[in-house]
Design goal:
The chain is of the alpha+beta class and 293 residues long. The protein is 26% helix and 23% strand.
Length: 293
């Protein structure tokens, strides 16, 4: 029998279900704690989600169970959840268009947390008030280490990228992926395309540093850091700042201080759980506030 609790979130009534279900067994972390985390982190998370079409990874039976990506808004979604209909080139289900949800407020965030949408992914662009896409406001480099390289080597590459971007008059902001790598975000207001710029810089880094590759092929990546510039393709998404990840414990994609990147000498130093991140935000605020917010 499904347990259900009715709550008021803002001006909306929500029915929360199976709150005692354990979604992260190694940490005994329940759905109630997932909802609590997303509620408490919402002041810094929501600015990075507003206006961005949503893709989630749902884990209804926890991180040990089956999961699925969901872009199309579920049929049972409340009418007050904002939806935008957008073209879906390359859809795996041969759809010409997809109705995406947009997380503009806390009730929508809690609604998705209750669906066990542990991971939140969004593109580098938004839709306007009319629901039409606007040009990207963010550029991203996704840094993925090929074993035996780790996030320590990713930090080394991030520092090189920071200097190259600074030379081009661009500021950059680092975060962990919440898994083994990290991302570098760049606020973008230029006419040039983000994908073209990111590709050119990744190729340049590859030509100058033997431990860097801009090639996606697995065989090219052992011991190197792959700079994935292709995340700037409008059809792609990247895990949002402050999103949980579906690991053994509730790790989070965590904005970093540059000092932490500079000082990183062990992968363990840049692993942060939900509780850690709430403490970090209480201390530092939103380190990603200049990024597309």
């Amino acid at each position: 029998m499904t347990s259900k609790v009715r709550v008021k979130v803002g001006s909306r009534q929500l029915a929360l279900t199976n709150l005692d279900k354990v979604l992260y067994p190694d940490a005994a972390y329940t759905k109630a704690e997932v909802i609590d985390y997303y509620t408490r982190i919402s002041p810094v998370l929501l600015p990075h989600l507003r206006g961005r079409p949503l893709t989630v990874k749902r884990y209804p039976d926890g991180v040990d169970g089956q999961f699925f990506f969901e872009k199309n808004i579920p049929a049972h979604t409340p009418e007050w959840v904002r939806a935008v209909r957008l073209p879906a080139p390359g859809s795996t289900k041969n759809r010409e268009e997809i109705d995406f949800a947009v997380v503009d407020d806390l009730p929508t965030l809690v609604y998705y947390a209750n669906l066990a949408a542990l991971e939140i992914h969004v593109p580098m662009w938004r839709v306007g008030e009319d629901g039409k896409p606007v040009p990207p406001d963010t550029l991203v480099f996704d840094l993925d280490p090929g074993a035996p390289a780790t996030i320590v080597e990713c930090c080394r590459v991030a520092l090189l990228l920071r200097e190259a971007l600074k030379d081009d008059g661009l500021e950059s902001f680092p975060k962990t992926s919440g898994n083994k790598g990290m991302q570098l975000y760049v606020p973008w207001d230029r006419d040039a395309g983000t994908a073209e710029y990111a590709k050119a810089l990744a190729r340049r880094m590859e030509s100058e540093h033997s431990f860097v590759t801009s090639v996606m092929a697995k065989k090219a990546r052992p011991g190197k850091v792959f700079i994935d510039w292709s995340q700037n393709n409008p059809a792609k998404t990247t895990v949002a700042p402050y999103s949980l990840r579906a690991n053994r414990v509730p790790t989070v994609s965590t904005p970093l201080l540059w000092e932490e990147v500079e000082d990183c000498d062990s992968p363990d130093r840049l692993v942060f759980t939900a509780d850690d991140v709430l403490e970090r935000v209480a201390e530092h605020g939103d380190l990603f506030s200049p990024v597309g917010a």
